[in-house]
């Protein structure tokens, strides 16, 4: 999603923007799917038409035109057919836009932070011994393994994916650790490029995708891609909802070992309060919950032994170490408290923290971009601001001079130079961004954040300059001109949102140009394109490149219709005939001119036009 994902390989993740959104023809998914005319119906219509017309011709009735005569013309003169296969969707060049979004719905087909080269060789390619506890699954043994093991985590990966290579040593180490602990779980992996049908059957839309199967039923893994996070997540799923702490030495291990822990100080280890705590624990995948009746254990967690019970505290290994729960002792209120307080006041964006940012239920974010040497001036201000917006906004620090993270994310937002920048971002739902202007202080940051929550800010969108001339068959659209060209209520408009680096976009270009050539001269119809890496508009959100959207005349207030058929002249033409609000017919040259034009086109291209489709 649009989301942040750095081309050409992984929906940012923040994407932190990776991908994502899938690299198919639109994953925004509010749009209606375009359903092409069934081939069998088309053939029947073509075969039946001459017989339907014979009685009319014999009786000298008013002449009737063949409704498919334009389609026949295209097939005959463009050398096209209707049997070309769909464009592949697992090519790493066919990706989501740079940083599809800072949320969970991101696509990881393309490398999040730039090149898809992954980390250094020693960490990204574990030895066979490292993966001794990782099962290799294929379509042949997948069902049998899931039937034999009650709990199985499966990683769907692609060998070319940088994130998959980065995950590999962590995944192998997690498998070894869980095996040593005797946990009843198997960790496995599937090469989705080899077993594409298997991946498709499990709705895999990005790499790596981690699914956790319990009795054959999958659920998404929502934790970080590290050994400790995977082990903790699985242990939480398979262990008791709440663990009892009765001894001080056990409590000390928790205090020193857990990054985040929740402790309830109760009168009894069973009963209504314990049940509410257990119910809250089941709503939280990543945090361990504990309970105790021991005043000594409570004291280790900074709870006054004389405090009124039940009491709950959340302990973190960071600057804000202790947070005390002061709400009603109900599962929903406890879970809400934990969700709002478990994350740091400000999260530094890295590959490791990106999944936690995307999967966070808090979608609205405040981002601070600053170079390392300047960050100490502004981080305390942002952290103090964050205290007033717990559970409402996510605060993220992006180190501007970090080439792996800062550069691609800054490019996505259109930030140039090294100047400290603060912006607000709505996440993947509508991908709006709002730049702060003025002096960065506690008062101005609080006001900016509050205005963001109350929708009082004006969004900013990227745009190339409006071209001085726009006379080609395919009209060039930029962010600033989309309203005038695409949202013109008097026109049916087909818009391709592309990326210059996208291989599938490059393959589509001659086909799209040919479509526009055959449709030139139809005043009611516009064939257009927009560079989605340099231009943004709330009514043209790509979730992959290329994304092809259709805006019917007189219906511009509705969501555009997504073209999801084969990328051929014939299929796009049939799509337009079906959905155009204003009926149209081709304006064809005479037959000799058409043959000359077609012959010259084939000679100049040096290829059969069918090969383009």
UniProtKB/TrEMBL annotation:
Pfam families: Thioredoxin (PF00085), Thioredoxin_6 (PF13848)
EC number, as in UniProt: 5.3.4.1
Domain of life per record: Eukaryota
Compositionally biased spans, kind Basic and acidic residues: 597-613
Gene Ontology CC annotation, any one: endoplasmic reticulum lumen
Biased composition (Acidic residues): 104-121
GO biological process, one term: response to endoplasmic reticulum stress
Keyword tags: Disulfide bond, Endoplasmic reticulum, Glycoprotein, Isomerase, Redox-active center, Repeat, Signal
Record-annotated Thioredoxin domain positions: 90-239, 460-581
Cysteines paired by S-S bonds: 161-164, 502-505
Enzyme class: isomerase
Disordered as annotated region, ranges: 80-128, 589-613
PANTHER family, sorted: PROTEIN DISULFIDE ISOMERASE, PROTEIN DISULFIDE ISOMERASE-LIKE 1-4
NCBIfam families named in the record: ER_PDI_fam, pdi_dom
Function: Acts as a protein-folding catalyst that interacts with nascent polypeptides to catalyze the formation, isomerization, and reduction or oxidation of disulfide bonds. May play a role in storage protein biogenesis.
Family: Belongs to the protein disulfide isomerase family.
Protein name, entry field: Protein disulfide-isomerase
Species of origin: Triticum urartu
Gene: LOC125514607
